[in-house]
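Field log, afternoon session.

UNIT: design team B
ACTIVITY: writing a sequence onto a fixed backbone
BACKBONE:
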C-alpha cells in the first residue's frame, strides 16, 4: 500500500513538472491526454497538475490538452485533486484553449474526496479562452464521499 502511495506522489510530481508551478506558461503546448490520478490506500492523497501556475501566475497564448483525464478518490478517506489549465490566486488565462473532453472525476470509496478543476482562475481573469470539456463526468457514489468538478470558473 505504501508503495502505491509513493508511486501516486511521484507520478503527480512528475506531471507537475509538465506545467509550471509558479510564474508564467507562454506560447506553449502541454500534452496530458489520458492522464490518471488516483488514491489506492487508506487516507492516501494524490495531486496532479497539468498546465498550472500558482501565485499570480499566468497562462498566455497556449494550449493545454488533457482529454480523457481521470481523477479518482478510490480509497477510504482518500483525497485526489487534478488541475488542468488552472491559474492560481490573482492569476490570468489569456488566449488559451483547454481541452479536457471526457474528463472523469469520481469519489468511489467511503469518505473519499475527488476535486477536478478545468480552465479555472482564482481571484483573477479569464480572457479570450476556449474550454472544451464535452462528456465530462463527476460523481460521488458512496457514503460520505464528495466529488467536485469546476469547468471554466473564476472565483
Amino acid at each position: 500500500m505504501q508503495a502505491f502511495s509513493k508511486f501516486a506522489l511521484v507520478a503527480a510530481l512528475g506531471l507537475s513538472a509538465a506545467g509550471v508551478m509558479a510564474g508564467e506558461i507562454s506560447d506553449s503546448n502541454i500534452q496530458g491526454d489520458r492522464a490518471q490520478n488516483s488514491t489506492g490506500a487508506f487516507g492516501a492523497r494524490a495531486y496532479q497538475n497539468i498546465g498550472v501556475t500558482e501565485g499570480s501566475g499566468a497562462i498566455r497564448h497556449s494550449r493545454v490538452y488533457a482529454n480523457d483525464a481521470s481523477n479518482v478518490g478510490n480509497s477510504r478517506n482518500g483525497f485526489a485533486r487534478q488541475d488542468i489549465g488552472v491559474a492560481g490566486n490573482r492569476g490570468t488565462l489569456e488566449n488559451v484553449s483547454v481541452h479536457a473532453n471526457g474528463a472523469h472525476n469520481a469519489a468511489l470509496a467511503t469518505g473519499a474526496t475527488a476535486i477536478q478543476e478545468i480552465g479555472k482562475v482564482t481571484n483573477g481573469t479569464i480572457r479570450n479562452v476556449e474550454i472544451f470539456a464535452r462528456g465530462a463526468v463527476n460523481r460521488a457514489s458512496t457514503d460520505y464521499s464528495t466529488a467536485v468538478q469546476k469547468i471554466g470558473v473564476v472565483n
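LOG NOTE: DSSP finds one helix and 13 strands in the chain.
NEXT ACTIVITY: expression trials, pending approval
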